[in-house]
Specification:
Elements: E1 11-16, H1 22-35, E2 39-45, E3 61-64, H2 70-76, H3 80-93, E4 97-100, H4 107-113, E5 119-124, H5 136-144, E6 151-154, H6 160-167, E7 174-176, H7 183-186, H8 196-199, E8 209-212, H9 221-231, E9 239-242, H10 249-257, E10 263-266, H11 272-280, E11 284-287, H12 297-303, E12 308-311, E13 326-329, H13 334-345, H14 349-366, H15 369-382
Parallel strand pairs: 1-2, 1-4, 2-3, 4-5, 5-6, 6-7, 8-9, 8-11, 9-10, 11-12, 12-13
Helix pairs in contact: 1-15, 9-10, 9-13, 12-14
């Protein structure tokens, strides 16, 4: 590869070792699209929530045992036999490109194990670590994941130049390919009747505001609860908070204050079908993030015709067309979010229908995996051959 693609299809080894979460879903969605356009093989975690999906792609595949704890991670790095299997598998496939849909603790070892003649391309989901995740361990993993990378894929334009400046790298080594619609969720039949704590929401389908996903400090749940507290004084619109994670004392206190209001908490891990069901049944998804790279929730909701009410933090501002596919508010501004919530829930049905249609159209035009995978392949082919 010397800046142009030759006539044969690129040989891409996808290394997707996450077990659950958005990056794991992202890896499968991107891998599925890459498999249709390139010669592909995949190494994936046998414990991944979507592990059964990879063999269905009909490409060479190698499931490997990973880990679930920090001690398990340290022990796994000593498994010579496991890395030898990965080495043999990769050598037999002879990739042009080694593509990581996200970082992983094993990458420094894999840098020595995998063929060095291949390009290494990494999708960076969070160029800047979020509040609450900026620990010594997170910073260390973030740094070692970038030791041997020839090309970086970012998910939004706003963070591209700061990323280039911070790493002091050639701009040609960084491209932007936005987050696609998590189509794994779309293929699951959406029903709220799967479990008792979501079945109770069927009475409010199409009416509620939804905060969905892992509960983390940077996601601003307390901001939403404060704004909703004001809205609930004059409106009975339901609010659903769904996702795993530990709530802060402030968030618990706010929820207690709202005990008499139609607020529903589903505080546990959600599978793909549940996320799809909750999203398709929402009136709006709400993302009051204080910092962000992007969101997988917004493309998913848009594909279902569900508008977003979101802060303009980071790359989220690139995912929502203000006043057309949803509403943007300044990050951390409770008063502004209150006003936008009031405005959104007061939309007449015709205005809401038009916004919903624009959401679905925007998702089709901008977040299809086939086009996104083609951009990753074109970028990979444009990179200079690595030094061995």
């Amino acid at each position: 590869m010397n800046g142009t693609r030759d006539d044969r299809r690129l040989r891409v080894l996808v290394v997707s070792l996450g077990r659950h979460g958005g990056v794991t879903q992202y890896g499968l969605s991107m891998g599925r699209a890459l498999a249709a356009q390139a010669e592909m093989a995949v190494v994936y975690s046998s414990a991944a929530e979507n592990a059964e999906e990879w063999p269905l792609l009909g490409v060479p595949h190698l499931p490997v045992d990973t880990f679930s704890t920090v001690p398990g991670m340290l022990l796994s790095l000593l498994s010579v036999r496991r890395f030898a299997r990965i080495r043999r598998f990769a050598k037999a496939f002879a990739p042009d490109v080694i593509y990581y849909p996200g970082g992983h603790a094993w990458k420094p070892v894999l840098d020595f194990v995998l063929p060095r003649r291949a390009q290494t391309v990494l999708t960076v989901h969070d160029p800047e670590l979020h509040a609450g995740e900026d620990s010594v361990l997170h910073r260390l993993l973030d740094r070692v994941n970038r030791l041997r990378v020839h090309g970086y894929v970012l998910l939004n334009e706003i963070q591209r130049q700061p990323f280039i400046d911070r790493l002091r790298i050639d701009p040609g080594r960084v491209t932007v390919v936005p987050h696609g619609v998590l189509d794994d969720f779309q293929r699951v039949e959406a029903s709220l009747l799967g479990s008792p704590d979501t079945a109770r929401l069927t009475d409010f389908a199409g009416e509620y505001l939804l905060f969905v996903g892992r509960i983390r400090p940077y996601k601003g749940l307390s901001i939403l609860l404060k704004a909703y507290r004001e809205v609930a004084k004059t409106h009975d619109v339901p609010l659903v908070v769904a996702g795993s994670g530990e709530l802060s004392s402030e968030e618990y206190s706010l929820l207690k204050d709202l005990a008499a209001r139609p607020v529903y908490l589903v505080n546990r891990w959600l599978d793909s079908g549940e996320i799809a069901a909750l999203t398709t049944s929402a009136r709006f998804v709400v993302l009051p993030y204080t910092s962000a790279t992007q969101s997988g929730v917004i493309p998913l909701a848009s594909a279902f015709g569900v508008p977003a009410i979101a802060s303009s933090a980071g790359g989220i501002a690139e995912q929502v067309v203000d006043e057309r596919t949803g509403f943007l508010v300044p990050a951390g501004d409770v008063e502004a979010l209150t006003q936008v919530l009031e405005r959104a829930i007061s939309l007449d049905e015709e205005s809401y229908r038009r916004m919903s249609e624009r959401c679905a159209e925007h998702a089709r035009d901008n977040w299809g995996w086939e086009a996104l995978a083609a951009r990753v392949l074109d970028f990979s082919a444009s990179l200079p051959s690595p030094r061995r």
